[in-house]
Design a protein that fits this description.
single chain; Rossmann fold; five-stranded parallel sheet; 2 domains; alpha/beta; Helicase, Ruva Protein, domain 3; globular
C-alpha cells in the first residue's frame, strides 16, 4: 500500500518535472516534419546521457534535427564533416606556437561543444574515429600535456551511410558498443514530404525558440534516475539480452549458428537507462514493458554480430530482435 502511495507521489513529480518535454517537441516539430522516432531518440539520448548513431541515406533531416535541438536548449553546437583526410587534431585541437608570447598555446577543436554532429563518421580512418570515441567515453580531451574536461551536457550524434556505399570504413564492434542507440531513419510519407517541400519553398523557414538551459537538462537527468523500475522489468531486460547470447535456451535454436556474438552488458545498462528516459518523456514515473519493447531494437541492433550463414539466409539483427521479443515472456 505504501509503495503504491510512493509511486503515486513519484508519478506526480515526474509529470511536473517533464513538462518541458512537450515544449521541446513542439519547437522541434516546427522545423522537423514527421520523424517522431528520431525526436524521441534524441530526447532519450539526451536525458539518458548517451550518444546516438543514426543510419540513413543523405537528406533525411539528421543535421537539422540536432541543430534544432541545440538551438532549443541554448547550447553550443558543432558539426564535423568526417572525410578520409581528417586528422585527430582537426577534431580535438592542437598546440600552436605564438611568436609574440614565445610559447605554445592550446587551440581547442570543434569537439569542445555540447552537441556534436559527427557527419558520416564511417568516411574517416580509424585514428580519427577513435579520437572522437575517446571524448565520448572519457568526457575529456588531452592536448599536449593539458587535459580538458568537456562541458555537460555532451551529446554526440554520429551519422553513417549504409555500409554498402563506397569509401566507408566500418566502425569496429567495440566502438559501435559505445553508442547508446543506433537509430535507422527511413523516408517520410508522401503527405509529410509535401509539407517538407512547402516549408522549404516558403518565404521564411520556421525558426525554433530557445526554451531551456543546459542546467535544466542536467537537473532532468537526476530526476530520470528516480523513475521506478520493478524487478520484473529488470528480469525482462536481462532475458532479452541473454536470449541474444544463448538463443537455444529461449527456444530460438534456429539462430544458434546465425549469431557470432550476442549483446554486451552495456546493452542491459543502456536498455535500463533508456527505458527510464523513455518513461520520463512519456511523462510517467515508472517503466512498463512497452517502454522496453519500443527501445529494444535501437539499443540492440548494433550489439549483435551476424555470421555468414545469417547473411546467406537474409536474416538481419532486426529480424532476430523481433523473434526474441516474441518468445521472451512479458511481465
Amino acid at each position: 500500500m505504501e509503495q503504491t502511495a510512493d509511486i503515486k507521489i513519484l508519478n506526480e513529480k515526474i509529470e511536473r518535472e517533464s513538462a518541458f518535454v512537450d515544449i521541446v517537441r513542439m519547437e522541434m516539430n516546427k522545423v522537423i516534419i514527421g520523424q517522431k522516432h528520431l525526436i524521441d531518440s534524441l530526447l532519450v539520448g539526451l536525458l539518458g546521457d548517451g550518444h546516438i548513431l543514426l543510419e540513413g541515406v543523405p537528406g533525411l533531416a539528421k543535421t537539422l534535427a540536432i541543430k534544432s535541438l541545440a538551438s532549443v536548449i541554448d547550447a553550443k553546437f558543432s558539426r564535423i564533416q568526417f572525410t578520409p583526410d581528417l586528422l585527430p587534431a582537426d577534431l580535438t585541437g592542437t598546440m600552436i606556437y605564438s611568436q609574440k608570447k614565445e610559447e605554445f598555446t592550446v587551440k581547442k577543436g570543434p569537439v569542445f561543444a555540447n552537441f556534436i554532429l559527427a557527419d558520416e563518421i564511417n568516411r574517416s580512418p580509424a585514428k580519427v574515429q577513435s579520437a572522437l570515441l575517446e571524448a565520448m567515453q572519457e568526457r575529456q580531451i588531452t592536448i599536449g600535456e593539458s587535459t580538458f574536461i568537456l562541458d555537460e551536457p555532451f551529446l554526440v550524434l554520429a551519422t553513417q551511410n549504409p555500409i554498402e556505399q563506397e569509401g566507408t570504413y566500418p566502425l569496429p564492434e567495440a566502438q559501435m558498443d559505445r553508442f547508446m542507440l543506433k537509430v535507422l531513419i527511413t523516408y517520410p510519407s508522401m503527405e509529410e514530404e509535401k509539407l517538407i517541400v512547402r516549408e522549404n519553398l516558403a518565404k521564411e523557414f520556421p525558426k525554433t525558440n530557445t526554451v531551456l538551459k543546459p542546467s535544466d537538462i542536467i537537473r532532468a537527468r537526476d530526476v530520470v534516475k528516480e523513475v521506478y523500475m520493478d524487478e520484473k522489468i529488470e528480469k525482462y531486460i536481462l532475458d532479452i539480452v541473454f536470449a541474444s547470447r544463448e538463443p537455444e535456451k529461449y527456444g530460438l535454436e534456429q539462430f544458434r549458428n546465425m549469431i557470432s556474438y550476442g549483446a554486451s552488458p552495456r546493452a542491459s545498462i543502456y536498455m535500463s537507462v533508456a527505458a527510464k528516459a523513455y518513461a520520463f518523456i512519456r511523462r510517467r514515473g515508472y517503466v512498463i514493458p512497452e517502454d522496453v519493447r519500443a527501445l529494444c531494437p535501437d539499443v540492440m541492433r548494433h550489439r549483435i554480430g551476424l555470421t555468414y550463414e545469417a547473411e546467406a539466409e537474409n536474416v538481419d539483427q532486426d529480424k532476430i530482435i523481433a523473434e526474441i521479443l516474441n518468445v521472451v515472456e512479458v511481465p
